[in-house]
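Re: Re: ligand-bound prediction request (bumping)

Still looking for help on this. To restate: I need the protein modeled with flavin-adenine dinucleotide bound, output as structure tokens. Inputs repeated here so nobody has to scroll up.
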Amino acid sequence: MEKEKYLAETKKALTPLLAIEEAARCLLCHDAPCSKACPAGTDPAKFIRSLRFRNLKGAVETIRTNNPLGAICSRVCPYDKYCEGACSRCGIDNPIKIGELQRYLTDHEQAIGMKVNDKVELNKEKVAVIGSGPSGLTAAAGLALKGYKVTVFEEKDVLGGWLSYGIPPQRLPQNVVENEIDYIKELGVEFKTNCKVGKEISVDALRADGYKAFLVSCGIQKGKNVDVKGADLEGVVNGVDFLAEAKTKKGEVKVGSHVIVIGGGDVAMDCASTAKLLGAEDVKIVYRRTIEKMPASTEEREYIQQHLNIPVFTGFKPAEIVGQGGKVTALKAEGMFDASTMELAADMVIFAVGQEAEDVKAIADLNAADVFAAGDIVEDDKTVVQAVASGKLAVEKIEAYLTGKSGLDEVASVKEVVK
Ligand SMILES: Cc1cc2nc3c(=O)[nH]c(=O)nc-3n(C[C@H](O)[C@H](O)[C@H](O)COP(=O)(O)OP(=O)(O)OC[C@H]3O[C@@H](n4cnc5c(N)ncnc54)[C@H](O)[C@@H]3O)c2cc1C
Ligand code: SF4
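Reply:
Sorry for the wait, this slipped through. Here it is.
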């Protein structure tokens, strides 16, 4: 039962009638601020206009020609930050539900088996993409559509990066990820899993094998640990490891009965909801700053607090994890703004306090003219849509490099921001 709750998508899809009614609320703004606000260049004003005139095919084409991960983005984008936040209707009542309309259209596309992008003849250079997260997938699709022979190298056995290992199924069902990856495979992109570049194979070996350009889209993978007494006790886990295990094992994981999540970002919210949906009796979140400073999206936090009844203790940081017989039994926390302390019983403590990059230089020399970078390793705003935008930019840069249309200065601009 718990497993079903965890695997089922929480947000229900719009019905055809509701989708048409929502599209009818659109003001068809001439300047379309929604379209200007999408980092990946989606044009909501255009697809909503098509939907209003019952032109579903045209609406799907607008989405799909721009973004190979349109169905994924429709589910995980923080719209309030982008298109919906810019929507002119914000000043009247509520923004148009752009994300839900995009989901309605991409669900329709999938249901009728519509294919907008056809495979083209792959007669150009070989390009290696290192990492199959959203930036790598977007770049691979874009390059294949231009005729390049692309191989994506992925160190894990499942493709998709955080789409498959991080974002839980109640927000992003795995079949949605698989459908979009299948679509990219149909464009002729090849995938090699369980192959870590820099370990199993080197960029030099790939060069010798005829690859002419490399995109490092390896993301930021390692969950940060917190240096606190008791962090090595049984029952203390890292948030991204916990989410990865739950998602890849389709919910067949053991969770504690009394779970404490430490952190205030989206990963912390995902850990809390996952633990609760998988049957934890009670889940609590402990966060060091104020609720206003929490980086998690307001929608996610409200869902956690109001629908899953998970309390958030703000202004506290962990002081010690208490254990007995090597197993965690409680968390001691101390106030950030005063001298208060508290002790909460727990048999599982999950740290969700951010991720850090592994050594990117071990993968490739980013100063080499044929090496490019995209995704979380170069973007300040670490979201899927930003990774898509970054993958699209990488396509332009790689094509410019391979066709000799740009100088090295321009090419370097993609790389120089790598931390
Ligand atoms: C739990 C969680 C929830 C999130 N929720 C959201 C959300 O709701 N909305 C949103 O917009 N964003 C969300 N994000 C952020 C988003 O998932 C990332 O910004 C995005 O996935 C980054 O994409 P990327 O292309 O950089 O690659 P990543 O997704 O980081 O994937 C990189 C891939 O490269 C592989 N790799 C690494 N090194 C090598 C190597 N040497 N050789 C071969 N392969 C390698 C990795 O195994 C991985 O599969 C979330 C992230 C997490 C962790
Ligand atoms: S800004 Fe809002 S109302 Fe204006 S075109 Fe875009 S979705 Fe429609």
